[in-house]
Amino acid sequence: MLSFATRTASRSLAAHSVANPLTALSRRGYHENIVEHYENPRNVGSLDKNDESVGTGLVGAPACGDVMKLQIKVDENGMITESKFKTFGCGSAIASSSVATEWVKGKTVDDILAIQNADIAAHLKLPPVKLHCSMLAEDAIKAAVADWKVKQSSKKQEAA
Amino acid sequence: MWTVLRTTRTTATRFTRRQNQTQTATAVGTTTLQPDRWMSSAAQQEDPRDEDGYSDSCTDLRHSTPQQPVNHFATMGLTPQFVVDEQQLKQSYKRLMTSLHPDKHTLKSQSSQDESHDLASRVTLAYDVLRQSLSRASHLLELNGRGMEDTASGKLVGACFLMHVMDLREQIDEANDDASLKKLWDENEVRSQQVCDGLAEAFAQEDFDEALRLTGKLQYWNRVQETIREKIGSLHDA
């Protein structure tokens, strides 16, 4: 039932966005932070997933069938220098991943593991029915870090 | 407040009772359902309950809680299984709706009319859920206590699968003509059918882990299909 609501919301959101996204969203009671990130998503795109300094996190929501990819580029000090995302999903999922890429930049790998979905949800003032979108973003960060760590350990093994 | 509570209890009781009756009917192989009979028996049980308080409904509630999902298969008089004969489902729906039509109940009491109205909306809901493979699979999982969690992320279907979905969504995004979208649509139909075949087998073998995984996959393919449909629509609008 929830998944149906999500899909309906995402569909109508998409439909409205063509005509006048801002009014449609505001009328639906979404916070301006979501609208802002949905309208002007930051860091959309891809990094080379075969680059060993790049970690790729790929997650999806089986309840609604949406997918999110979040990538981080990590320098030799373990600092995130760049982050990109690509999300095929509703406005809240896009806004959540956009915020996530903003937040991870300039932080260390360990720091970004501490980012909680509740922080993202609070920042965007996500309605309860959309909380799973921020969970996706948190999972995507964690998956990206895990991927980067696997690459680092295999690099060490090769060197040894 | 009490009125509200009582109404809820009564509704819950009706649900349980009618479900039991339908299940019995299915068990003995009776294919012809008689909603009139259910209603009259439910109506008979309604009066004493109103008089002597809640003891009866409390007992029934104990059996139906916690939040036992409504069995849509029972509502339609069908055996709960993934493979459904569409014709049979449609016929059940038509037969039930014909007998529940408001015009047939104008001379009956208000409570009986409410009852048939209530039943008609449950039949409509059941029909909607059962006629589509994705919602039918989700419902079967739910009935077996294995509902899809909203919080599950990528673990259910695996990274490779998600990569495939991501790739397809990108292809749809980039496709700008009917021919390539049609091709993506046809390929997606094949994938969906394969998943449905797998679901039929998984449910037949009561392998609910596999059924859950495949239902997750079907959700992604359904979403891909919706996206293609939206894209085709937007191409024609432009």
From TrEMBL, chain A:
One of its GO terms (cellular component) is mitochondrial matrix. It comes from the Eukaryota. GO terms for biological process: iron-sulfur cluster assembly. Coiled coil: none annotated. It is found in: Mitochondrion matrix. The keyword Glycosyltransferase does not apply. GO terms for molecular function: 2 iron, 2 sulfur cluster binding; iron ion binding. Its cofactor is [2Fe-2S] cluster. InterPro entries: ISCU (IPR011339), NIF_FeS_clus_asmbl_NifU_N (IPR002871). Residues 30-153 form the NIF system FeS cluster assembly NifU N-terminal domain. Transmembrane segments: none annotated. Keywords: 2Fe-2S, Iron, Iron-sulfur, Metal-binding, Mitochondrion, Transit peptide. Belongs to the NifU family. Scaffold protein for the de novo synthesis of iron-sulfur (Fe-S) clusters within mitochondria, which is required for maturation of both mitochondrial and cytoplasmic [2Fe-2S] and [4Fe-4S] proteins. This is Iron-sulfur cluster assembly protein. It comes from Phaeodactylum tricornutum (strain CCAP 1055/1). The gene is IscU.
From TrEMBL, chain B:
Residues 18-68 are annotated as: Disordered. InterPro entries: DnaJ_domain, HscB, HscB_C_sf, HscB_oligo_C, J_dom_sf. Keywords: Chaperone. One of its GO terms (cellular component) is mitochondrion. It comes from the Eukaryota. Pfam families: DnaJ, HSCB_C. GO terms for biological process: [2Fe-2S] cluster assembly; protein complex oligomerization. GO terms for molecular function: ATPase activator activity; protein-folding chaperone binding. Residues 71-153 form the J domain. Residues 18-34 have a biased composition (Low complexity). Belongs to the HscB family. This is J domain-containing protein. It comes from Phaeodactylum tricornutum (strain CCAP 1055/1).
